[in-house]
Design a protein that fits this description.
single chain, about 230 residues, alpha+beta, 8-stranded mixed β-sheet, two-stranded antiparallel sheet, about 40% strand
């Protein structure tokens, strides 16, 4: 393993990604490490690879399996417990901050299943730990009229880390039982899970897909058209 001689993987990197890989690599570690034919985001002082991912885990499956042949891997997944939006305007070559506001949207640990649904098998890989980082995140935008209509034409410039509130480490399938808020033999549907967890039904269905694949819940019949589930 060695430090990469170039900046492979950093050209489109956000400040959030860079800050997290530096934070988790630590003062005794290093970032951008060549190993197993890939460039790992970092390597900490304990000899553990660091990978930061803000989207789906699916693109990382081959890379993580290759890195695990050499050392343990910590997959860091940030969730915006609070998001602050700063909108800038460019005028005569100068950037001005128009306003800063707090987004009404708040993330939760359940957001993990948006990333894990297409890479659920990663949760059972020996040597891989997934760390959820609940953080305050700043999203910087520019009012250029080129962005999504949902953002009123504002383009996203960057995202950065403002503060870490909490982290949750998941090292083995059994750790995911924290996402099954029902007693054993207590039957429940996706809608019941969504209501109890305070999440949308679509996200509850993703969670149940992953939890079923991990052998933590199983289908136990039907209630009308809805599947019933039970803890295993």
């Amino acid at each position: 393993m060695k430090k990469a001689a170039n900046s492979i993987g950093t050209k489109k990197e956000s400040s959030l990604h860079r800050e997290l890989k530096t934070l988790y690599s630590g003062p005794q570690g290093m970032t951008e490490v060549a190993a197993a034919g890939y460039i790992a985001d970092g390597l900490n002082g304990e000899g553990e690879f660091i990978e930061v991912q803000t989207g789906s885990f699916a693109p990382l499956k081959r890379k993580l399996k290759a890195l695990l042949l050499e050392a343990p891997v910590r997959l860091v997944y940030p969730v915006a417990a609070a998001k602050y939006i700063e909108v800038f305007e460019l005028f005569n070559g100068t950037v001005f901050l128009l306003h800063r506001r707090k987004s009404p949207r708040r993330g939760s640990p359940w957001d993990l299943f948006n990333a894990l649904v297409y890479g659920w098998e990663l949760a059972s890989l020996q040597g891989l730990s997934i760390e959820l980082v609940l953080a305050d995140i700043v999203e910087r935008r520019v009012a250029d009229g080129k962005g999504s209509w949902r953002r009123r034409g504002q383009s996203i410039l960057d995202k950065s880390l403002e503060a870490v509130r909490e982290s949750i480490v998941l090292e083995r399938p059994a750790d995911y039982l924290r996402f099954v808020p029902f007693a054993r033999r207590e039957a429940f549907t996706a809608s019941m899970l969504a209501k109890k967890a305070g999440i949308k039904a679509a996200l509850a269905r993703k969670a149940l897909y992953v939890l079923t694949r991990l052998g933590l819940v199983k289908r136990a019949g039907k209630k009308g058209r809805a599947w019933l589930y039970e803890r295993v």
